[in-house]
Specification:
Blueprint: H1 2-23, E1 26-31, H2 39-54, E2 59-64, H3 72-81, E3 86-87, H4 113-121, H5 123-129, E4 137-147, E5 149-152, E6 166-169, H6 173-180, E7 185-188, H7 194-200, E8 205-208, H8 210-215, E9 224-226, E10 232-240, H9 241-245, H10 252-284, E11 288-290, H11 294-304, H12 307-315, H13 317-325
Parallel strand pairs: 1-2, 1-3, 6-7, 6-8, 9-11
Antiparallel strand pairs: 3-10, 4-10, 5-8, 5-9
Helix pairs in contact: 2-10
Bound molecules: (2S)-2-hydroxybutanedioic acid.
Length: about 325
């Protein structure tokens, strides 16, 4: 009898561990703050699709868009605590962890997304991916969104038009300085709060890409959008360092390849999504697009670029020069 009970216990443990193995895939929670239909949203879903197709039953990826699980500041903390495993904040949101990434926020530094792409793929750009590893953030890839436009309830044609207005900004000191240089009042605010802030008049304006403006309906709360292309919103996809380093040897390269493939996928789509959303905004008739002349563009550039001086010591001249050089196609 005792033997029979012992045998049953052994079998039960065996069955339980067998079940446990089959039912316990590695779970990757991927949290972000934008909509599924944006470049980042689509990239995250493609990463999920590839990982689950290539590692069936071994790894599952749960994607949480739209600040559903965590908003801006919270997701940075949640990653360190292991509550999520991957996030993809905009490069403006790493200010607290490294000053080097401030290079991406400097206004009018990059001519377009191709220049940014060249810089990111170069040695300095690649080195930046591992620059926060010891702080718990392992950079996996850069994902593009696009160039920023400036919106308000009055037409912004000259830099002076922004004077005295309150603008929502991402938590970046460069962006703070950029708006201060215009005589405007910048206010750091989480992405999820922007629509309401625009609607209630807590802020007068904001800067963002066409895809973020469209998907968050900012254009419905703003009478004008000036096509300034004055800066960029791009992302660093980061994983919790401990989690990433601890992935099993047979799993890690497959997840890495899925990330590389999702990166190519998302980065190819980004420009098209932004152009499509620009068209949708125009077609909605809810806002007026202000197109700037060459002279007006130059005036914005002149008003904003003096901030370079202030940030160059922290960013480093080498990084700044490399970023500038990326404007010339090789
Ligand atoms: C913002 O806060 O405006 C953007 O960084 C949101 C995003 O992730 O694109």
């Amino acid at each position: 009898m005792r033997y029979a009970i012992a045998m049953m216990a052994v079998l039960a443990v065996g069955a339980a561990s067998g079940v446990a193995q089959a039912a316990d895939p590695i779970k990757i929670k991927f949290s972000h703050v934008v909509a599924d239909a944006t470049p980042k949203g689509k990239g995250a879903l493609e990463f999920k699709r590839l990982v689950e197709q290539r590692l069936p039953g071994k790894v599952v990826v749960e994607v949480y868009p739209n600040s559903q699980l965590f908003g801006d500041a919270k997701e940075m903390e949640a990653l360190l605590l292991g509550d999520v495993q991957i996030i993809a904040p905009s490069l403006s949101k790493f200010d607290k962890f490294t000053k080097k990434l401030q290079v991406f926020d400097l206004p009018f530094l990059f001519d377009d997304i191709s220049a940014i792409d060249r810089f990111q793929k170069g040695k300095m750009g690649q080195d930046l991916l591992s620059s926060m590893k010891s702080k718990g953030y392992t950079g996996l890839a850069y994902w593009h969104n696009g160039m920023k436009q400036l919106s308000a309830n009055k037409p912004l044609r000259a830099p002076e038009d922004a004077k005295g207005l309150k603008f929502r900004i991402q938590p970046s000191d460069v962006l703070l300085a950029q708006f201060q240089a215009l005589g405007a009042n910048p206010q750091k605010m989480a992405f999820a709060e922007v629509y309401q802030a625009l609607q209630t008049g807590t802020v007068d304006g904001q800067e963002n890409t066409w895809s973020n403006i469209y998907s968050q309906k900012f254009h419905e709360a703003q009478k004008y959008i000036s096509e300034t292309n004055h800066g960029v919103i791009d992302y660093m996809v980061v994983a919790n360092t401990k989690f990433w380093d601890g992935l099993p040897k047979d799993v890690k390269p497959v997840v890495e390849k899925a990330m590389a493939d999702a990166t190519v996928f998302a980065n190819k789509l980004a420009e098209d999504i932004n152009q499509q959303d620009k068209k949708r905004i125009i077609d909605s008739g809810k806002t007026e697009i202000v197109t700037l002349t060459k002279e007006q563009q130059l005036a914005w550039r002149k008003a904003m670029t003096p901030v370079y001086q202030k940030f160059e010591p922290d960013i480093g001249k080498d990084l700044l020069d490399a970023a500038l050089a990326s404007n010339k196609a090789s």
